[in-house]
Amino acid sequence: MTSNRKFRVSAIFLGLLLLASVRASHAQATPPARSVDVLETDMSSSTVATANAAVTSPVTPSDAEPAAVTPTGADTAASATSESDWHFTVSPYLWFPGVHGSIGAPNGGQIGFSASAGDLLSNFRIGLMGVIEPRYKRIVMPLDIFWIRLGDNRALPNSPNQGVANLHATEFFLTQKVGYRLIDSERLKIDALAGFRYWYFGENLSFTTNTLNFSGVQSWVDPLVGGRITGILTPKVEVTIGGDVGGWGVGSQMDYQIFGLLGYRIKPALALQAGYRYLYFDYRRASGAYLDNATSGVVFGVSITLK
User: Fold this and answer.
1) What is the residue range of 237's domain?
2) What total of structural domains would you count in the chain?
3) Angle, vertex CA 182, rays to CA 179 and CA 183, nearest 5
4) Is residue 68 part of a domain?
């Protein structure tokens, strides 16, 4: 190759490099104008003028391509907040149970008792029932609250001034558990749980014919272990079964429950639920007194996902 031809090839190659560098700079801020001395070649004057114009013409902001947007730390934090790992569900419910059991005295005496769901409902005064469940990733923290007050007034036969006996009873239990979601798939969710159940019973008996009042309180705490399984049968229908067991002499001798719920999802964040619940405890004192009680019946509720 002659020196003249080598010189022309070098000039063309240099021009191509300059054109490529100008094209790459379009995505950045406008560079200052630069002048390039065009080497003398036997290229046509029009070709040289075109190449020179392409190299020396400044790039205006209107010609520049849009710059790529790089997420900042604030944008990343906002995205993480919008897709939070926290979830919150509230599930108020109504439980219509019947109860039966026995009460034992220290001297060995025993009294059995039984009341249907209708009996309890006829003496119902006020109550609060519901489950609150925060969840962080796979950590679940269900809190179950049950509180009712019952009352009854009975006339005393053969009493002066037509005396009346007033009986008021309060039952409250709170179950707090913390667990880990072992399986979290679209069709199946399994939770392993552990926690405690706090029991409170209060009774008060008064008479209108005198100032005698009788009252009593029993309260204790039972440790628990349990689990829960939820199967999603269809996008709208799901089944949940679960239970727990505890006590072991810490509070009561035995404390356990089992339940089953059928849910129908009206909206993604709203589901109706119906099922059955059985709850039992056997509580004994060192004096020999004891109370064993089984509470069971149908449950109706609503599950609302707030977040």
Assistant:
1) 80-305
2) 2
3) 130
4) no
